User: Which sequence fits this backbone?
């Protein structure tokens, strides 16, 4: 095994397209490098973590065909974090703080006014025992910070290149809240060390976290652990706004419900923001061979959901009946409708159209009813051996109609749509009796509405 990566979502909302991109890229990178993906559930946020979100994320990964070597749940690893916390406190690397949120905000504003970095001033390290006792007697409960070393951190990012951070300009991170809950930066570092993660691939919004966590990696592992980092530029909506778990996030469940093939999502997410062309891949193995993490740029690409539908149509056009037989009951129906299929929902729809139970509920206009009445008359009186081209010709003569005026009413009456497969193929597959029933139903609806006027 050459690499081990992790996808570590917080179950505090549904997985949006930006989260999915991180999952897809990690999975492809692991598979491409004979490695494995660890699925880590970062559920240290006790208030916002929900079982429904976790279940949804698991379902989304399964839909995307993303598999993982094992599942790690942070809420089950508290004792491990406690051990590391105790060790670091004994070494003076962690220290207790007592400021309220209001006091911290005031300090940040004062620092900004002075033109200084809004970093924590480490005032808690200057507290005397009596001051600490007085604070605790007043009801203050301490939270913990990690004391960053006064040094410059540098790493060669797989995507962004050389990155340098002066830790003296960064606040000592809070690693444990006053209620005992551990924060992401601390628990994540311990998990990465314990799991032997070789590559951390995540969004650019974590770059500062990386600088801090490198210091934590060194302190906790005694310098024995290191890994590579790759920071993907953040996707934005087509208007440039950020994605959110809770507002306008383009949840994967919405795409799934719309009948989108997961490969349309994965193919776009694996190439958006790269110099690679987006292609209609049919399976993950093709995409794994094509994927190249070094092709990602630093600029934030815009995700337009319309591109998903366009690519999905191309993918559906490449499908064979064997690929979609769970969605449509007949290969003959599939072949007739194939050029009009853009999603899996279209497959289901056409399968319904070709069943006897389908009812378009089409109410024609007066001129359209005249065409349908002529068609019904032909269907009732014609020889059973009449061909459909002969049928069209006869109806056209009786109704004195041609072109769209002839074809659209008949198409609407039988399918409920004004477009679709070749009508001769459509009617031949439906059969004369089905066509007669549906044309008759449309005329009955027309007459019913006329009586109500």
Assistant:
């Amino acid at each position: 095994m050459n690499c081990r990566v992790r996808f570590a979502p917080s179950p505090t909302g549904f997985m949006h397209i930006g989260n999915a991109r991180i999952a897809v890229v990690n999975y492809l990178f692991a598979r491409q490098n004979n490695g494995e993906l660890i699925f880590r559930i970062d559920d240290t946020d006790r208030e916002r973590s929900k079982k429904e979100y976790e279940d949804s994320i698991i379902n989304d990964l399964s839909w995307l065909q993303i598999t993982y070597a094992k599942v790690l749940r942070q809420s089950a690893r508290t004792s491990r974090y406690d051990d590391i916390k105790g060790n670091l406190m004994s070494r003076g690397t962690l220290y207790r703080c007592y400021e309220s949120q209001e006091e911290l905000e005031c300090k940040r504003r004062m620092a900004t006014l002075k033109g200084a970095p809004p970093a924590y001033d480490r005032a808690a390290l200057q507290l005397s025992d009596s001051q600490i006792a007085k604070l605790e007697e007043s009801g203050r409960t301490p939270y913990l910070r990690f004391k960053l070393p006064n040094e410059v951190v540098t790493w060669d990012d797989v995507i962004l290149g050389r990155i340098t951070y002066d830790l003296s300009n960064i606040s000592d991170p809070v690693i444990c809240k006053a209620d005992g809950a551990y924060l992401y930066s601390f628990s994540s570092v311990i998990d990465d060390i314990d799991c032997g993660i070789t590559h951390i691939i995540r969004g650019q919004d974590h770059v500062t976290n990386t600088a801090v966590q490198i210091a934590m990696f060194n302190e906790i592992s005694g310098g024995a652990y290191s890994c590579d980092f790759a920071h993907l530029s953040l996707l934005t909506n087509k208007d440039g706004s950020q994605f959110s778990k809770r507002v306008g996030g383009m949840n994967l469940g919405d795409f799934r419900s719309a009948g989108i093939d997961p490969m349309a999502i994965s193919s776009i997410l694996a190439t958006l923001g790269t110099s690679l062309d987006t292609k209609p891949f049919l399976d993950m193995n093709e995409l794994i061979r094509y994927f190249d993490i070094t092709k990602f740029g630093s600029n934030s690409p815009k995700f337009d959901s319309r591109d998903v539908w366009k690519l999905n149509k191309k993918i559906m056009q490449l499908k064979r009946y064997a690929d979609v037989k769970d969605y449509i009951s007949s290969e003959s129906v599939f072949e007739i409708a194939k050029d009009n299929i853009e999603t899996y929902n279209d497959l289901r729809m056409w399968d319904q159209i070709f069943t006897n139970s389908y009812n378009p509920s089409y109410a024609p206009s007066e001129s359209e009813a005249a065409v349908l009445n002529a068609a019904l008359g032909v269907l009732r009186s014609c020889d059973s051996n009449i061909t459909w081209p002969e049928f069209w010709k006869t109806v056209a003569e009786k109704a004195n109609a041609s072109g769209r005026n002839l074809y659209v009413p008949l198409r609407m009456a039988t399918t409920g749509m004004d477009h679709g497969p070749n009508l001769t193929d459509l009617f031949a597959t439906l059969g004369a009796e089905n066509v007669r029933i549906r044309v008759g139903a449309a005329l009955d609806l027309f007459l019913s509405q006329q009586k109500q006027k």
